[in-house]
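Input/output pair, single chain:
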Amino acid sequence: MKNKEFKSLDEQISIMKNKGLIIDDIDKTKDILLRENYFFINGYRMLFMKSKNEKKFIEGVSFDDIYAVFQFDRNLRNILFKNLLIVENNLKSVISYNFSRKYGIKEKNYLKASNFSQDIKKVRQVNDVLNKVKRQIKLNGRQHSATLHYLSNYGYVPMWILVKLLSFGMINELYSILKPEDKLSIAEFYNLDVETLGIYIGLLSNYRNLCAHEDIVYDHKTQKVIPDTIYHRDLNIPLVNDEYEYGKNDIFSVVIMLKFMLKDSDFRDFVNEVSYELDLLDGRVDSIPQSKILDIMGFVPNWKEIVNL
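Output:
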């Protein structure tokens, strides 16, 4: 395998120009490449290529077009991240409320293995997850003011405080080892079935991490798909071989998940913010139709109607 070599800003620009990219302002482009990193800017180039095999840009594509999509994705990521944090906080609150009500407020009581799945196949998983949770209390309990307050004054950490120490990924693991009836209590809050909520938590946790690490989001596809919903049907999303073409493992699937997991007012704000960013992008990019970007994201033309469904 050929090793990658360092390329100066001038060399990076030369490579792009040789592939047919229009660069109107060399100094501005250099500044952007230095600030944002050529590698990450380059991650958006395929949208503007003639084909996967022919590594040449479509005629008329400029660096400004690529940078506009880069900026759009950054803003989309920020919008998603903000709302995923809301979902994460809500989920932690619902889980801790239901669990504390049933199993008590001291960790020596609510973190008993007997309070979790009794499936013989999950014994090791239950122990592993509970050990991770207890480790978080030991490692981080005295670094947070709320947990420190409870440990210092009462000698225990109630679950509504503990969940603040847990990542979205750990909440996903915790949900997976709950007893069926406890999963049901949480799923009913979101008007979802137990299995679907489990899928949503796992996928939203994945997207939360993508956003936090500034990975490319707008074209991200997950391996796992979400189950069909009334929104797939009511938006008349096209079927291919009896499977919905959009809203299954793309960004629109995240929109559908947030429809279930955000308050109506928060969801409306979310859709308005995404719509605004799409309108801005449409005004900045002329070399490709916006329909190409929407298709990659899994957005059907009437996607905003989901707000009123």
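The beta strands are 239-240, 243-244. The longest helix spans residues 63-103.
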